[in-house]
Give the backbone structure.
Amino acid sequence: MPLSLRRGRVTGILEQHDDLVRLEVDGVPCVAYPGLTGPVALDDEVLVNSQARELELGSGGFDVLYANLTRGLELPAEQGAHVVKLPYTPAQFAALHAEEGAELAAELGGMPVVCCSLHSQLAAACAGLGEGVRVAYVQLEGGALPLGLSDTVRTLRQRGLLSSTVSQGACFGGEVECVNVASALAWAAATNHQAVVCAVGPGIVGTASRLGHGGVTAAAAANFASALGGSPVLAVRVSSADQRERHRGVSHHTRAVVELCLGDVRIAWPKGLEAPEWLEPREEVDVEGWDEACAGLPLSHMGRGPDVEPWFFAAAFAAGRVARGLLP
C-alpha cells in the first residue's frame, strides 16, 4: 500500500480558511490542512500525496499537502494533548479530546439524532431542523476524514444552523474531538445541544456491494443513539436521476442501513413520493416549501442540484423536520 508522494513548490494560494487552504503546487490543484501541516505560503517547498488524483478516483481532482518542508517541520504538539489520531500511521498526531476533561451525559434523554449516509444530505437536514435549535454536527468515518474540507459545514455555521462541530474516531478538525460516536453524542447532550446531525464527510467509500460502503456508519450512529436513550431519525437516500440502478429510487445504501439498525429508528419520508413496500415503518412528512427553506444553502449531490434531484434533498429535509417535531 505505497504512498504516492511528489515534491513541488507552491505556485498559487486560491482560498484560505483557518482549517483549509486551497492552493496549487506546480500548477496542480491541492488542499492543505494548516492545523496539521502548519501555514503555507507561495514558493514553499512541499510534499504532496498525488495518488487519488492520478488514479482519477471520485475523491481525486486535487493533491493533498503531506508536509511543508519550508515551514512545517518540527511543529509542536497541541499543549496537553496525548490521545493520538490516526495512530501508528505516518500521519499520527495528538489532539485534545472532550472525554479528557468534560463530563459526558449518561444518556440522551430522547434527544433526536439525524443519521445521514451522505454529506450532501447535511444542509437540507439542518434546514429541516430550522433556526433557533442548538444543533451539533458529528462527522462519521466513511467519507473524508478532515472536517475542514466541508464548505457546507462552514456555511451552516455562518447561517446559525449548526452550533458546534465534532470530529470523532479517525475524523479530525472539528471544534471538538471525541474518541467515538457514543461519546460525541454524550458530549452533545451534556453541553445543552437539542439535536445532533451525523453524516460522513464529503465523498463516500463505495464498492457497489451490499455492505462495503461508507453509508453503513449511519446505522452505527443510529444504534449508539438508541442505546443511549436518544431518538434516531434516518435520512433516506433517494434518487430519480442516478444512472446506477442500485441507487435509483431508494438506494441500496439506505436498505443496508435499515437492515443494520438494531433499535427503533424513525425513517423520514417526503409525502407525495411513492415509497417501496419494504421501507417500513416510515413517517411521511409534508415537505412543502423545503426548497425555500434551503435557499442559499449548498445543495449538490454527485454534481446534481435540486432542480435535477428534488426528492433527494426533500427526503433529507424530511428527516430534519421529524427531528424538530421531537424537540420538547
Notes: DSSP finds nine helices and 17 strands in the chain. The mean pLDDT is 95. The chain has two domains: 5-68, 99-325. Residues 99-325 form one domain.
